[in-house]
Amino acid sequence: MKMRLRANFILAIVVNLWMVHTVASLSNIGISYGRHANSRFLLDNGVSRTPPMGWNSWNHFWCGINESVVMSTADALVSTGLASLGYKYVNLDDCWAESERDENGKLRGKASTFPSGIKALADYVHARGLKLGIYANAGELITSSMTIAIMMVQEIERDILLWATHCRKLNGQFTSLYVNGTTEFLQRNCIFLRGQEDPAKWAGAYGHSWRTTGDINDTFARSIAFHLCIHLHPNFMATIESFTFLLFFSVTWIADLNNRWGRYAGPGRWNDPDMLEVGNGGMTMDEYRSHFSIWSLMKDPLLIGCDLRSISNRTLRILGNKEVIEVNQDSLGVQGRKLRSKDGLEVWAGPLSDNRVVVVLWNRSELRDLITAHKYVSMNKRDRLTASVAPHACKMYVLTPLQS
Ligand SMILES: *[C@@H]1O[C@H](CO)[C@@H](O)[C@H](O)[C@H]1NC(C)=O
Ligand SMILES: *[C@@H]1O[C@H](CO)[C@@H](O)[C@H](O)[C@H]1NC(C)=O
Ligand SMILES: *[C@@H]1O[C@H](CO)[C@@H](O)[C@H](O)[C@H]1NC(C)=O
Ligand SMILES: *[C@@H]1O[C@H](CO)[C@@H](O)[C@H](O)[C@H]1NC(C)=O
Ligand SMILES: *[C@@H]1O[C@H](CO)[C@@H](O)[C@H](O)[C@H]1NC(C)=O
């Protein structure tokens, strides 16, 4: 009797595994379309084979950065153990630069906030085994606060190359001009391209990661007012999403937008739904765990966006979860996708190396009143993989095939 039960159990797991694996593989890699899409990626140079990991100044500090914040953040990456888990990039976002060039027409760090200069900062960061990343805008128009207008890619390269920075976040918010100027040197580095016109479709030939959405906001779901608008105007979503770069997006919304581009991701080319908000205080711990888990499953860059100098132990446990990081850094590099969504209960999954599968059961139930409560999420009709998931929380499983 015992034996029989066990045999049934194993059979059910194998069937489950096969189903999830098939669905995940098909939906991610895509039989013909995926191959076609992937063949257009030219930038196969060994860089960024797994999604980049590190810290970026924007989500917490906005323009309030200076060299002491960046240096102590580099120290904190090391002392918290996050650096040894793979968080290697220390990325300066907007507002590091002086608005005018120096007498030789070159870019330079803001004298009031980076008095020692960017080269000294790079040396400091490198001495800790980390890499310095830097933000630039290649558009004709200024962006939020960066006042260097009309900056071309060649200039960016010439100037920041001097400081031996490793990672570029290139903003092409108001133009696609920069595409033509991108050079081989820039391609060899970790570049974040941002622009409209669906960068997932073309940016893989020029960089290793590209933004797929507008800016993230430290919030879980869209507001009730938003849902009301969607309800009243069927075209509301389509209209609003065409203004992606003018909006702030919640975690659930951004996850869905990024999910559309799953088939374009792979080793060396990653969709970027914007940096992590974990630890910034706008969401609950369960919501931050979901945020981190889904970003990891989608093979998104893991760029911490909180103040690491005062990180809480609870936040550290989320960002430092080794098993979840391993899912993100898996060598297969296939973006996991949403497979099923019903009444706010969602199943996300994707294939991993060694025929393993990662599954996330996510309870989004944004509008408690409008959904019928479900007790279980199940992978198939037999209800074999079931879980009770707290509101806005998720559970992640890595399924490993049984050895024969
Ligand atoms: C550096 O920035 C931090 C965070 O914005 C701020 O608290 C601190 O006072 C600044 N330090 C200097 C010297 O400006
Ligand atoms: C790149 O340059 C070519 C020729 O100079 C031009 O036709 C094309 O529109 C440019 N592409 C972009 C994306 O600006
Ligand atoms: C953005 O997040 C903050 C903090 O959670 C919240 O107060 C604000 O309402 C959110 N804004 C939008 C547009 O969702
Ligand atoms: C955080 O964890 C460290 C190491 O386990 C411990 O020494 C410290 O007291 C904890 N801090 C808080 C606020 O619980
Ligand atoms: C999801 O959260 C809702 C409350 O928002 C709860 O009623 C439901 O039971 C939860 N679902 C699962 C599968 O635990």
Automatic annotation (TrEMBL):
InterPro entries: Aldolase_TIM, GH, Glyco_hydro_27, Glyco_hydro_27/36_CS, Glyco_hydro_b, Melibiase/NAGA_C. GO terms for biological process: carbohydrate metabolic process; lipid metabolic process. One of its GO terms (cellular component) is lysosome. Belongs to the glycosyl hydrolase 27 family. Homodimer. Keywords: Disulfide bond, Glycoprotein, Glycosidase, Hydrolase, Lipid metabolism, Lysosome, Signal. It comes from the Eukaryota. The keyword Protein transport does not apply. It catalyses: Hydrolysis of terminal, non-reducing alpha-D-galactose residues in alpha-D-galactosides, including galactose oligosaccharides, galactomannans and galactolipids. It holds the Pfam family Melibiase_2_C. GO terms for molecular function: alpha-galactosidase activity. It is found in: Lysosome. The lineage of its organism: Eukaryota, Viridiplantae, Streptophyta, Embryophyta, Tracheophyta. Residues 1-25 form the signal peptide. This is Alpha-galactosidase.
